[in-house]
Amino acid sequence: MKKSKLFDTHTHLHDEWFDEDRDQIILDAHNSGVELMVDIGTNMQSSYDAVALAEKYDFIYAAVGFHPHDAIDYNEETESELMKLWNHPKNLAIGEIGLDYYYDHSPRDVQQKVFIRQMEIARQLGKKVIIHSREATEDTLKILRMFPDVTGVVHCYSGSLETAKILIKMGYHLSFTGVVTYKNAAKSLEVVDWMPIDMLMAETDSPYLTPVPFRGKRNDSGKVNLVVEKLAEIKGLTYEEMAKITFDNALKFFGLDKETTDEK
């Protein structure tokens, strides 16, 4: 029986947690049915690393940008270097960008300034954005509203149903991680249950947020099937149906549906 094709839309395979077995982890995931992966950069070095992985593997793509944690390091020089990566043929989006008021590793005014700047560039380049928002809903929405012609995905969505409805109306996809398998994930389950099926995506955010029953261990792209399995359960669909839905949604979102595939 042919395996269902899966798409891990948000992973950090370049992370040092994978330094000892990165290639094996990537190949194991791919051989298990994870047809495509997007490796996400969060600062200058990880953005270089993400593009390098995308160049090495034909089934890995990159998205690069400055995460709010690293916003304090964003400057004209890094922007110039990022521009080269943003224009790389295997870079699909600008991200991971946004606001994080939980850790505040960068001052909030700096986070906002860098977020706005990267949104401006996304508009200029016609790129999708990958949004990180933690404990910063009001300011995140305020900035997104400044760019009605830019769309993207809010990754690892953990907000309220009310906020989800606003984001969907704005044209943003929502992506979910292994968090949906946790016992305290009631809010996320409510959002998944409500949301339009064509705006739903799956991710691992590996090496973080490992799904049950592996919670507490290192996450990897090969575990995205557990996220898809839970999404299917919530939506009352079969695993195969949800795998196809999330795969096709991600293809369309990233513009990869226009590329030649084995089925065409």
Structural commentary:
Helices cover 41% and strands 17% of the residues. It contains 9 helices and 8 strands. It has helices spanning 22-31, 44-56, 76-86, 108-125, 137-145, 161-169, 186-194, 224-235, 239-254, and strands spanning 6-11, 34-40, 60-64, 91-100, 128-134, 152-154, 173-176, 200-202. Strands 1-2-3-4-5-6-7-8 form an 8-stranded parallel sheet. Helix 2 (44-56) runs parallel beside helix 3 and helix 8 crosses helix 9 (239-254). It is globular, with a radius of gyration of 17 Å. The model is unreliable at 260-264 (pLDDT under 50).
Q: Give the terminus-to-terminus CA distance.
A: 20 Å
Tell me, briefly, the overall form.
Answer: globular
List unreliable stretches of 5+ residues: 260-264
Compressed to H and E, one letter per element, the order equals EHEHEHEHEHEHEHEHH
Short recap of the structure:
This protein has 9 helices and 8 strands. With 264 residues, it is α/β, with parallel strands linked by helices.
